[in-house]
Design brief:
Elements (H helix, E strand, L loop, with lengths): L2 H23 L9 E5 L6 H17 L3 E5 L6 H8 L7 E6 H10 L11 E9 L2 E6 L7 H10 L4 E5 L5 H13 L3 E5 L3 H10 L4 E4 L1 H8 L4 E7 L26 E7 L4 H15 L2 H9 L3 E2 L4 H21 L6
Parallel strand pairs: 1-2, 1-3, 6-7
Antiparallel strand pairs: 3-10, 4-10, 4-11, 5-8, 5-9
Helix pairs in contact: 2-9, 4-11
Length: 327
């Protein structure tokens, strides 16, 4: 390579960060450029359906196409890393549960992102507690009866998760320790296999998302017996919390929200937040969410940032208390 070509190559490399900055500073939304909402689950699940419901209306509000991109794997980390490296122009968003950015950094050594340095909170999207669901083959109608049966039958109950270090795994670990029972952890790689084996009775217990719990309960093979929350959820007003049933420490509430990559212009964040808020306040959408076991819940970016920080700190304290080491 002669000197002139070498200089041209160096100049081109130097311009790459500037190109990203220019793109991020363009007025949002960029005409005809789609907004990608990245979801770390396969199509058809509760989180995916919520994103698709919002996407349909968001496209109309902002007058640009909105596409949902499913990127399952690594307990939602793949989706987070996809958004982490995106241009911060508002056209790439992550829609993800609290576990991705508030819990996994404390539970898994493989996490390669920083919750507060690599992402921009845009808006809360939905609330929905985790629900303790139990296969009907276990003769227990509530948590107290489950604990009594498990103590009388040590090691005969297994609980399922979508991988080591995920929320279902950690809540199972905390529950077993707090209740003084012996359960076997069975990690899976995919939600579809979890549901199939749960319904068949191959696995017995799971701390499931509210939307997954509703779907499982509709099969008639699984019953909901407790919610993970500090107080009863309006979605399941007749279902007692774990604390009400004598098991403390299983009460960190779950949410799902919208994030962009770090460095998004404040005006872009505000415009996205306003548009998402408009959509989440639509009565029909709110009813669709409720039918799926979730509560549509917008917020300001500032409120959402405080929620993220609070949940992140709660998980740090809880895992420290039980002596959990990163896997």
């Amino acid at each position: 390579m002669n000197a002139r070509r070498r200089l041209q190559a160096l100049l081109a490399l130097a311009m790459l960060p500037l190109a990203g900055t220019v793109a991020a500073q363009q007025e949002f939304p960029i005409p005809n450029k789609p907004i990608r909402i990245v979801v770390g689950f396969p199509a058809g699940g509760g989180t995916d359906l919520q994103a698709r419901l919002v996407g349909q209306h968001l496209s109309q509000v902002l007058n640009v196409p909105v596409v949902i991109e499913n990127k399952p794997g690594a307990g939602t980390m793949l989706a987070a890393m996809e958004v982490q490296k995106a241009v911060p122009d508002g056209h790439t968003l992550l829609y993800t549960p609290s576990s991705t950015l508030a819990m996994l950094p404390h539970s898994l050594a493989a996490v390669k992102y920083d919750t507060f340095k690599d992402f921009t909170p845009v808006s809360l999207g939905a609330l929905g507690p985790l629900v303790l669901v139990l296969h009907k083959s276990i003769p227990a109608a509530n948590v107290r009866e489950l604990v009594a049966w498990a103590k009388a039958n040590p090691g005969k109950i297994n609980y399922v998760s979508q991988g080591v270090g995920t929320s279902a795994h950690l809540y199972g670990e905390i529950f077993a320790r707090q209740a003084g029972i012996d359960m076997v952890h069975v990690p899976y790689k995919g939600a579809n296999d979890v549901a199939k084996d749960f319904i068949s009775g191959r696995v017995h217990l799971q701390f499931a998302s509210s939307s997954a719990a509703v779907a499982l309960a509709k099969t008639g093979e699984v019953r909901m017996i407790g919610v993970v929350a500090g107080k009863r959820s309006p979605l399941f007003s007749d279902l007692p919390t774990m604390g009400e049933q004598g098991v403390s420490g299983v009460d960190i509430e779950s949410w799902v929200g919208y994030f962009g990559p770090a460095g998004m212009p404040p005006a872009t964040v505000r415009k996205l937040n306003d548009a998402i808020g408009q959509v989440l306040k639509m009565p029909k959408l709110q009813e669709d969410y409720r039918q799926g076991g979730a509560e549509a819940k917008p917020s300001t970016p500032e409120e959402f940032a405080r929620i993220v920080r609070g949940t992140y700190d709660e998980w740090a304290q809880t895992l420290q208390k039980i002596g959990y080491a990163k896997q």
